[in-house]
Design brief:
Distance between the termini: 19 Å
CATH superfamily: Electron Transport, Fmn-binding Protein, Chain A
Number of strands: 8
Radius of gyration: 16 Å
Order of helices and strands: HEEEEHEEHEE
CATH topology: Pnp Oxidase, Chain A
Strand content: 35-45%
Number of helices: 3
Helix content: 10-25%
Oligomer: single chain
CATH class: Mainly Beta
Length: 150
């Protein structure tokens, strides 16, 4: 799995074939929390999701925007493949372009359309973005292999 092309193929396949990623956040005191969220990728570098700002992971990100993300493909018999990422997240204030990307991705999977109003300050949800700074996959020997998806 050392070939750069193979690594990219594995990583992009994981992102493209899954719907949920797990956010690993921590609060201001360092207490960890993990949450699965439905995501829309943006060129394999950014990941969008919608959550309540009152959700524990959202409150954690407000206090500490650094997080880890894993997208795990459990479909493979005998074990799955995963893409691991270090990232920084933010609640988006300017949502116009990102909510269109998020909505198109969801509609392509049979989900409802999302609008700016659905993630406005008066709505129940907000739109979040994580920007990955590090991405890697593990091989069958648990050796870590960085992946450049830019």
């Amino acid at each position: 799995m050392n070939d750069l092309t193979d690594l990219r193929a594995v990583a992009t396949s994981i992102v493209d074939s899954n719907r949920y990623m797990t956010l690993a956040t921590a609060d201001g005191d360092g207490r960890p929390w993990a949450s699965p969220v439905w995501y829309a990728p943006v060129e394999y570098r950014e990941f969008l999701w919608v959550s309540s700002p009152e959700a524990r992971h959202s409150r954690n990100l407000a206090a500490r925007p650094e997080l880890a993300i894993v997208i795990f493909d459990s479909h493979e018999a005998g074990g799955g493949k995963a893409l691991y990422m270090s990232a920084v997240a933010e609640q988006l204030a300017d949502v116009d372009e990102a909510i269109q990307i998020f909505s198109r991705h969801g509609e392509a999977q049979g989900l409802r359309r999302w609008t700016r109003e659905d993630v406005s300050p008066t709505a129940r949800h907000r739109l979040y973005r994580a920007t990955a700074s590090e991405r890697f996959v593990l091989d069958e020997h648990d050796q870590r292999h960085p992946v450049d998806l830019a």
